[in-house]
Amino acid sequence: MSNRAVVVIDLQNEYWPEGKLPLEGIDVAAANAARVIAHARGAGDLTVNVRHEMPGGPIFVPGLDGVEINDAVAPGSGEPVIVKSFSNAFRETGLQSLLEENGIEEVVTAGAMSHMCVDATVRAANDLGYRTVTIHDACATRDLEFDGRSVPAAHVQTAIMSALAFFYGEVIATDEFVSR
């Protein structure tokens, strides 16, 4: 096994059009994430899926279809699934222990939402000493509003990815990742 892990964050049914919190470009992001996962499996990388759950919440309710990882990126047999209840996938989960047990030095991320769980997890991974690579076109987000202004998803994505690239690690496209 390599010293790299691909961490697929929250690509759950809730984010698809039939879910309660649809994201722009989720199908493209998931297709790219599937390519990243296939490449990682072929390279012997550890592949970890992360699933957000909010018992009693309005979204990601355990037992409902929205909480399930989408079939486009379904975990393979024996691949770990980390269940979290905070944006940061390291917080109060076994993710860090799993990475340490497998000698992981580099964390590659893909998933949703770029401005929440991807951002929080990449920053935490960097803070914990991991090299990070974020696959920007395998991540999705949504339009946001702040102070009476609407921010289109494309602008949210650009802002988050540029912030991550500025300090927290490498940010690349799927094609570049799979060609390495």
UniProtKB/TrEMBL annotation:
Q: Which Gene Ontology terms cover its molecular function?
A: hydrolase activity
Record the organism: Wenxinia saemankumensis
Keywords, in A-Z order = Hydrolase
**What protein name applies here?**
Nicotinamidase-related amidase
Q: Lineage, please?
A: Bacteria, Pseudomonadati, Pseudomonadota, Alphaproteobacteria, Rhodobacterales
Isochorismatase-like domain residues are 5-146
Coiled-coil stretches, from where to where? none
* Matching CDD domains: nicotinamidase_related (cd01014)
Question: Which InterPro entries does UniProt cross-reference here?
Answer: Isochorismatase-like_dom (IPR000868), Isochorismatase-like_hydrls (IPR050272), Isochorismatase-like_sf (IPR036380)
